[in-house]
Fold this protein.
Amino acid sequence: MREAAKIEEIVSEHVALRAAGVGSMKGLCPFHDERTPSFHVRPHLGMWHCFGCGDGGDVISFVQKIDHLSFAEAVEFLAQRTGVTLHYEEGGRHLRTEEPGKRQRLLDAHRVAEEYYASCLNSSEAHAGRVFLANRGFDQGMCAHFGVGYSPNSWDALLRHLRSKGFTDQEIEIAGLATRGNRGLYDRFRGRLMWPIRDITGATVGFGARRLDDTDQESPKYLNTPETPIYKKSQLLYGLDLAKKTISQQRRIVIVEGYTDVMAAHVAGEACAVATCGTAFGSEHVKVVRRLLGDNADPAAGVLLANGRSRGPEVIFTFDGDEAGQNAALRAFHEDQNFAAQTFVAVDPEGMDPCEVRMARGNQAVLDLIASRIPLFTFVIRSVLRHFDLNTAEGRVRALAASAPIVASIKDRALRMEYTRVLAGWVGMDMAAVFDSVRRSRGISFDTRYGENNNMAGAGIPAPAYTPSPNEDPMDPIVKLERQVLEAVLQHPLYLIGSGFDDFDGSSFSVPKYRAVHDAIRAIGGLDTFTALLRHAEHSLGQGERAQELATRRFAERVREEAGQIVGATVAELAVAPLPQDRADEMRAYCRGVVAALMRMDLMRKVGEARSRLQRLEETDPDYAEAFRALMLLEQRKQSFTERD
């Protein structure tokens, strides 16, 4: 058995493994919480060991530990997986000797129940269920793929079926498939559509059920299996058995809110979609996701994209646009602190969930929705700011008071400083005031350049003023060029695809209001978002100028909405400003020319700063090698850009 079962395949269903030298693989240990991978597998030896918790063994012991099985159950599981026939010492047919409630008996009961519910979906009684599914665009093949079924509207239909298969009442009750009342045992699920909930190995451990009679207000709309020895809702994600391979390969996971949303996403082509099972996304789910993503702080572990960039692991939440969705985002915000992965939110502008998006606009619209993701931090902060009138001084002060604690709770210092600066632009307030509000919300000072903790404050000497930019004279060449670049990207984003615009960072813009506009463009996903909008427009209108215009308009609207009321006015101004070039056949060259000019200037500045830093260091300084390497990379990038230009 140990030879027949490939340990790397079994382990990879639970842990994202990466090469770690000759003949070795590693990942995050599934048996204890860790950030740095210490769990190692050697396939040619068939062994695993965690240098963090000290546990280890072979493939059988791994299955025993991960699935809480006895030795015999683990061997039987692996035999079934590998097609090995087991021979028992007593000879003849193997008789089960497990006591009622043992794991395998509970799994068998759920397998039989799933098959029974699936067969009932074709009955005349289930007509309303089939209509429900058809109205949402799911055909028979799709339903079979996800194992969707129907529970007859009877008190004991499943109970009688399970009894006929040899299951005892005690087993059926422990499995959560029946409930005991004053008159005895009766079916838990009656007259509902049924979705089997499977663990990561693909074994059915519970069900999610939706009522079909929406006039029945006495029973819950959704009903799930209760907690059982095999069903732990805080550790389960619906659809994970189907999505785990793609999640591990692409190092991203899309978390939706319902069973039909998972189906819609998968049918549309997003195979990384999963959902929680009647509970909020919590810390136990975080551990499951991190293991699958191979989440760690090593940027080299990212996926290499077609453009040569490395993308780290991504967790993408899709929430409804209503208040409940925003509350879900706030809960996820706190869980995000446990992720080293980047976490994003995708919300449809009309507040539709992925299933509704697919019904209304088709499969591509679901993919476009997910592609339009924005950082979770951005979503949460902006959700709070929407409750205030930022056109008034009082509204801005209250908005700052409400949002500063959120920014202050970001544990990553560099990211916290970045969002402090961005928040200043969103609320239209002085950076020093925003910085001080964030600092006071943390109860500590993480930088003493501003505010009352500065050793000059309160001594009659003003604290150093914040001076974020050079002269903002519109005729200044730098100011003018930054403005022209933003005008070009807002008015003609199509011409700037592949121009390098998305390579700019916040420091590339010296004027605060232009930096804030650039931040808004970056927050919505940059030109990748425009590309997604263009695909959607072409799907509806066909290729041509109408589709390009529609996509450009929606892109500018997204940027303006993201920028907020204060900076949004600058976005509107840039979007309608006349350009120096008025010839259509020269417009593309103009737009790419101003981006190239700013890129050239930005690279020259960064090279100069890198040289200056290197000159201040001695060759024996521990930072010298890093500074030299950074300078060489900038020089290479500058040379490459010059040659391309």
Observations:
- Residues 91-101, 297-310, 444-471 have pLDDT under 50 and may be disordered.
- The chain has four domains: 7-82, 103-231, 259-371, 477-644.
